[in-house]
Amino acid sequence: MKKRGSGAAVARLRRGLLGVLLTVIGVWIAGILLFAFLPVPFSAVMVERQVGAWLAGDTDYVAHSDWVGMDAISPWMPLAVIAAEDQTFPTHWGFDVAAIRTVLAGSEEGEPVRGASTLTQQTAKNMFLWDGRSWVRKGLEAGLTGGLELVWTKRRILTVYLNIAEFGDGVFGVEAAAQRYFHKPASRLSMSEAALLAAVLPNPLRFKAAAPSGYVRQRQQWILRQMRQLGGEGFLRQHHLR
Fold first, then answer.
1. What does the pLDDT read at residue 27?
2. pLDDT higher than threshold 50 for residue 110
3. Residue 149 and residue 155: Cα distance in Å, rounded?
4. Which CATH superfamily is domain 35-238 in?
5. Does the pLDDT of residue 186 top 90, yes or no?
6. In degrees rounded to 5, what are phi and psi of residue 98?
7. Beta bridge partners of residue 166, listed in sequence order
């Protein structure tokens, strides 16, 4: 009787876990379908940051974002993040295979491993998953990335990315960042300002747009050169991103 009762408990636990998993997957699918058109009110990373602040006793922290459409964002901003983070964004299917091979080759040779996440991967992670590194998270991210590329347009992916990207402590999205650091709407960001915001994206809690270090300034200048080499606003029009 004991073994039978134990087996039944294990079976119930398995069914419960399967139910939770299917529910989470259903929420993700619904999110991908709904947010192909609707503004994204918040992201998983925003929730993670807010809950972490509350648990730490920081009642002043507010994860803040103001949704704006692509037409209300300076064209320099999408160009800046593409130049800085993912120059093959218009043509890949969510994964930069060449960059992944380079990272794997460097890892095998004992070199420091550098990320190869595309803008689509970063959007999937920021929207639906938690921060940090693990093979489980990367696997889930890969599946969500495929879903975004299948359902959303490139313009939509870029719009959502710019609205949920973290630009500083509690600052999410390009509109909140433009207001916080430059006291202007995202539509009026200059080429230099857009490059500065893009320069902090690898680690916005360490790199400060309000007080840029020498490294951030160097990265800003590199991004500006890349933006010019890509062809400026013509690059966005060529790939139907404006």
1. 85
2. no
3. 11
4. Biosynthetic peptidoglycan transglycosylase-like (1.10.3810.10)
5. yes
6. -60, -40
7. 172
Taking the CA atoms of residue 66, residue 144, residue 34 and residue 185 in that order, the dihedral angle to the nearest 10 degrees is 20
Confidence band for 107, pLDDT divided at 50, 70 and 90: very low
The string of pLDDT tens digits covering residues 113-141 is: 445 699 999 999 999 998 877 788 889 99
CB 124 within 8 A of CB 146: no
Phi-psi group of 193: left, alpha or beta (phi > 0 → left; psi -120 to 50 → alpha; rest → beta): alpha
Q: What is the mean pLDDT of residues 163-173?
A: 96
| 240 phi and psi angles, rounded to 5 deg | 55, 45
Contact by Cβ (8 Å): 226, 76: no
Region 32-38: mean pLDDT is: 95
What pTM does this model have? 0.88
Cα distances (Å, whole numbers) of residue 89 to 110, 122, 153, 217: 28, 12, 12, 24
DSSP the chain: -HHHHHHHHHHHHHHHHHHHHHHHHHHHHHHHHHTTTS-----HHHHHHHHHHHHTT-TT---B-----GGGS-THHHHHHHHHH-TTTTTSSS--HHHHHHHHHHHHTTPPP-----HHHHHHHHHHS-SS--HHHHHHHHHHHHHHHHHS-HHHHHHHHHHH-EEETTEESHHHHHHHHHSS-GGG--HHHHHHHHHTTT-TTTS-SSS--HHHHHHHHHHHHHHHHHTTHHHHHHTT--
- pLDDT interval class at 112 (50, 70, 90): very low
